[in-house]
Structures are given as structure tokens and as C-alpha cells.
Amino acid sequence: MTNWKDIDQKAKQWIIEAGEKIRHSFDSSLSIQYKSNPNDLVTNMDKEIEQFFISRIQETYPEHRILGEEGYGDEVSSMDGVLWIIDPIDGTMNFVHQQRNFAISIGIYGDGVGYIGLIYDVVHNELYHAFKGEGAFMNDIPLPKLDKVEIEKAILGINPVWVTENPRIDYQLIVPIVKKVRGTRSYGSAALECAYVAAGRLDGYMTMRLAPWDFAAGLVLIEEVGGSISTMTGEKLDILTKTSFFVGEKHLHKHIIEEYLNK
Ligand code: 2AM
Ligand code: CA
Ligand code: CA
Ligand code: CA
């Protein structure tokens, strides 16, 4: 039997320890490299933090598998067993340019079911946490279930790039949504944007391309506050693939899918 409470306690302890390491790193110089293109950044801290989690997990739970953005974990092609999905720094561009608006994200799944979600906003010292069936919390304060919100009163998380011509979606589908909502925000960290939806700071968040480590933790949080989760066309998400992504308060989510995205 998997002891999820034990895993939860360890994961919390390690994420706080990793946050300390990131805070200390502000005093020393960063080494910044490019990945796929000059805007796709990675730093020594992204790599060090991922390696920190991997060594802790491997010494404590040798049978668990790990999928991490920087690739130091396992080659993962199924959701079998206990799987840690880790983004050591979500929002690396913000980390480099702003030293804020980034987070550590950890989702822990058992045979494909999300049990634990942890998103740590290191700089603001806000730890978002969800445990399957027990609710979602911010610094141990329970987050209430999401209340119905009308589109005219909604704040939507979306990157403005999706209302410009782009290869992934007809931006003319998105323009009317942006016009109709009360406001839009773009924070540049998918994990934080999911945490904000769970906390009611955003009513929805949509984007055309995310990877498993961007949303694995966020899904557990959103599930626990009764939000809806799907692709941009309303289909079920495949946790192990790069995908379009739309989460939000359930009435708002349904309305936007039916009236705007699937017209
Ligand atoms: P990162 O900072 O961990 O790379 C920025 O809009 C958000 O999208 C961040 O959460 C960022 O995560 C993520 N992101 C950046 N490039 C991406 C890509 N090529 N595919 C999927 N997600 C990406
Ligand atoms: Ca990245
Ligand atoms: Ca990420
Ligand atoms: Ca990252």
C-alpha cells in the first residue's frame, strides 16, 4: 500500500528546502543557457533544483518514477505506479528577468490518479497544496470551492500571443472572449496561473501549449476546488503529452467551450 500521507509530508519538506536554495541563489550569479530558441531559457538553478528532488526521491522511494522538465529523471511513457512530475522552476524567464512570478511545481500521481499537488511561490512564500479528497490550501488555509462566475465578470489568464496570428489556433476565435471578459492577465508561469484559478484570483486560464510538468500539480489543485479541466476544444487531457490547456470555474469553462471555442 502506498502511504500517500508520508509522501505528502516529505514532498512538502523538500519543496520548502528547495525554495530556500532558490532564495539563497539570488546572492550569487546565475548561469543562463538557451534551449530550443533564444527565449527558451534554462539556468543552473533549474538543473540543481531538479537534481535535488531526484536525489531525495531516489534515496527515500527507490521504486517511484520521476518525470522532470530538465530530463534528469526517468524516461516515462506510462502513468503506472507512483510518478512524480516535477518542474523545478516554472516561469524561468520571470526568474531570470524579475526574480518573482515563478514557482516550483510538483504533481504526484498513482496509477494515473493525481493525489498530491504542490506549487510553491518561493518569493511570496505562498505554498499551494492539494491532497486528493481533502481539499486545496494556500499556506494551510483552505481554499473554498469555486463559485459560479459569469463571463462578463471573469478574469481570464491568457498570453496576448494567442490574440495575434499564430500557428496553433485561429486567433479570431479568441478575440471575442478577450473582449467579453472583465479583464485578462498573463503571469508567465502556468503553474502559478493554475494555482491562481484554484485560489479564485483568476476565473480561468487558457493556453495553446503546455507540457506535463507545467500542469501536473495544478490539475490536483483545480480538481479539489471543483474547477473544470480540458484541452482548448473541451477534450480530456492526456497528462503525459504536450497539449492545449483550459481550466476554470466550471460554468464559465463550459460557456466558453460551447459558445466560443467549439462554435
Ligand atoms: P517554464 O518557465 O518552466 O519553461 C510561460 O508562458 C509558461 O509556459 C511557463 O509555465 C513556461 O514554463 C511554459 N513554457 C515555456 N515554453 C514552453 C514550451 N515550449 N512548451 C510548453 N510550455 C512552455
Ligand atoms: Ca523551460
Ligand atoms: Ca514549466
Ligand atoms: Ca521549468
Automatic annotation (TrEMBL):
One of the record's GO molecular function terms: inositol monophosphate phosphatase activity
Reactions catalysed according to its record: a myo-inositol phosphate + H2O = myo-inositol + phosphate
Enzyme class: hydrolase
InterPro entries noted in UniProt: Inositol_monoP_metal-BS (IPR020583), Inositol_monophosphatase-like (IPR000760), Inositol_monophosphatase_CS (IPR020550)
EC annotation from Swiss-Prot or TrEMBL: 3.1.3.25
Keyword entries, A-Z: Hydrolase, Magnesium, Metal-binding
Gene3D superfamilies, per the entry: 3.40.190.80, Fructose-1,6-Bisphosphatase, subunit A, domain 1
Protein name: inositol-phosphate phosphatase
